[in-house]
Amino acid sequence: MDYPVEIVVGGLRPGPAAQELEDRMATFLRTHWVEIAERTGQPFDTAFLDRRDGWMYDTEPAAIAVAAIRSLNGSRALEFFTTIQRAFYAEGQDVTNFDVLAELAAAFDVDSEEFRISLDTVTARKAAWADFSRSRNWGIGGFPALIGDLAGDQLALLARGYTEEDLIRTRIQSLSQSA
Q1: Which helix (H) or strand (E) holds 117?
Q2: Residue 162 placed within a domain
Q3: 119, CA 20 to 30 Å: which among 21, 100, 170, 179?
């Protein structure tokens, strides 16, 4: 059975919470990414973690890009979100850079210039921060998270962090039966 999916970005390290990539953070991320790769098979390009040029690990630009694509071509938001994730984690691209995000968006049936302009709007930034607020209000502190709303007015946490597909399916079936 298919269920509609809405991407709500959580804001792991947005704007004022962004952190400079320094030795301690890089060591933590490298260990974490290797662990995730071993559990999931998800590829990671850890070369990005060798960077020491003042780069800020800021999730706000990518979140703004997701908000922008939702407004321009909402049916492809999940696919675009996945593309951003792959670009950063598996390909080592700098998704804090609006030019990189615009290049990624070019494959998503949006006008590249319109998309690039939308990244600099208050509207897209407010939409991203509204998402951050929603996820905090839902009590989400770990990402990724999957929330089910099959009853229409009651949310249920289906997964936080890596969760086996069979367990997610079981939780969805359970939630469907109780709705």
Answers
A1: helix 112-119
A2: yes
A3: 21
Please provide the size of the chain in residues. Answer: 179
Is 48 in a helix, a strand, or coil?
helix
Asked whether residue 176 is assigned to any structural domain, the reply reads yes
Give the three-class secondary structure for 58: coil
Structure tokens at 76: 């492809």
CA distance 36 to 15: 25
- On whether the CB atoms of residues 61 and 101 are closer than 8 A, the answer is yes
Question: Looking at the domain assignment, is residue 35 inside a domain?
Answer: no
Of the candidates 23, 12, 26, 28, the one whose C-alpha atom is nearest the C-alpha of residue 61 is 12
Which residue in 144, 9, 6 sits closest to 78, CA to CA?
6
> Does residue 170 fall inside a structural domain?
yes
Q: What is the pLDDT of residue 1?
A: 63
Q: In which domain, by residue range, is 170 found?
A: 144-179
Q: pLDDT digit string (tens) for 120-145?
A: 999 999 999 999 999 999 888 888 89
Give, for 147, the enclosing helix (H) or strand (E).
strand 145-148
The letter for the amino acid at 111 is D
